[in-house]
Design goal:
The chain is of the alpha/beta class and about 325 residues long. The chain has helices spanning about 1-25, 110-120, 140-145, 160-165, 175-185, 190, 210-225, 240-255, 290-295, 300-305, 315-324; strands spanning about 55-60, 90-95, 100-105, 125-130, 135, 150, 160, 200, 230-235, 260-265, 275-280, 285-290. A six-stranded mixed β-sheet has the order 6-9-10-3-11-12, with helices on both faces. The protein has a four-stranded antiparallel β-sheet with strand order 2-1-4-5, covered by helices on one side. It has a two-stranded antiparallel sheet with strand order 7-8. Residues about 1-20 and about 65-75 have low confidence and may be disordered. The structure holds adenosine-5'-triphosphate (ATP).
């Protein structure tokens, strides 16, 4: 019976490990604080990332696909065939492998939604999203989510040791690798100074970490995971200037030669991006490098002017547009 039991037990472990990998990959995405809605195909092939090229091809999406014709708001909103408001409206862009693309725009413009579609928290209503030519709907969810890393404001810590929080999503890391990752994230020093170092319990009921420390744990987690595609959600915030510089440096290292999507509110953090997409009302209204966009004299250059202190406030025209 031993012979029979063992293989079964091991198989069970493997399945369990994949399920855990997928669940943890899902949970560490701060923007995935919702259940989502997709049709999954458990027999799908795994995603094969070669260069990390990402294409959005005429993508449209509404959260609300049931009929919402009885809603009373705005007669001018774009509605799709089913009558619901389009949150993403005919968006196309290409990101070459290793490039950084930044998404900027007013609150509610659809920046997070663009990324939720990449992660397949939701499926597009129209159009296609491809990674190295593979439609994200045609590959297994676990492989899709294993290929991505997230560093964000709401970086998720669970109740467990610092070490477990760093290895979350990567199961076979040695202590040495964990320390390497923490060093790259400028987190090693503060971790060493915790009561039990890497064995300190953090998260709910554990030692409280500051926002900056949580972020550095999240960066260490991403360094260790070494994902093909990185998602940054306004990665520096809530910390003093010196820590911010350290964090920015480790993030720069992390994004190098890795396809990166960065959602930014402060434009100074993304001005070196290979391309910047300015979203407004679910559409791309401007695109280009920082230099291109400054010359454009549109929403971006005005937002930049305000944030750089060059102009006092956004011209009325843009405020009205953002409030529509
Ligand atoms: P912010 O800068 O405030 O994070 P954003 O540009 O990331 O905004 P999204 O979070 O993508 O914008 O939201 C775009 C629109 O979709 C908003 O009008 C928002 O209210 C709506 N929305 C977001 N999530 C959901 C959801 N789960 N169900 C219904 N509507 C949603």
């Amino acid at each position: 019976t031993q012979q029979l039991v063992w293989p079964m037990a091991q198989f069970g472990q493997v399945v369990n490990m994949y399920q855990r990998a997928e669940a943890s990959s899902e949970r560490i995405f701060g923007l995935m604080d919702e259940q989502g809605r997709i049709e999954r195909d458990d027999d799908a092939d795994d995603l094969e990332v070669r260069e990390g090229r990402v294409e959005y091809d005429r993508v449209s999406f509404s959260y609300d696909t049931v009929d919402s014709s009885d809603s009373t708001d705005g007669a001018e909103t774009v509605r799709d065939d089913s009558g619901s408001e389009r949150i993403i409206d005919d968006v196309s862009f290409d990101v070459d492998g290793g490039e950084t693309v930044a998404l900027v725009g007013p609150t509610g413009a659809g920046k997070s939604t663009v990324l939720k579609l990449l992660l397949r928290l939701y499926d597009v209503d129209r159009g296609t999203i491809r990674i190295d030519g593979q439609d994200v709907r045609d590959v297994s969810l676990s492989s899709l989510r294993q290929s991505m890393g997230y560093v964000g404001q709401q970086s998720f810590l669970f109740y467990g040791t610092v070490e477990e929080n760093v290895t979350y999503g990567t199961f076979d890391a040695s202590r040495e690798e964990i320390i390497e990752a923490a060093k790259a994230a400028e987190a090693h020093e503060f971790i060493q100074n915790l009561p039990d170092g890497y064995d300190t319990m953090v998260g709910e009921r554990g030692v409280k970490l500051s926002g900056g420390q949580r972020q550095r744990v999240a960066i260490a987690r991403a360094v260790l995971k070494d994902p093909d595609i990185l998602v940054l959600d306004e990665a520096t915030s809530d910390v003093d200037t010196e820590t911010e510089m350290l964090i920015q440096r480790s993030i720069d290292d992390l994004t190098e030669n890795r396809t990166t999507f960065a959602i930014a509110h402060r434009l100074s953090t993304i001005k070196d991006a290979d391309q910047i997409l300015v979203l407004e009302d679910g559409s791309i209204v401007e695109r280009g490098t920082h230099g291109d966009l400054l010359e454009n004299d549109g929403l971006y250059s005005h937002l930049w002017g305000v944030q750089a202190g060059e102009i006092d406030e956004l011209p009325q025209e843009f405020i009205e547009r953002a409030q529509r």
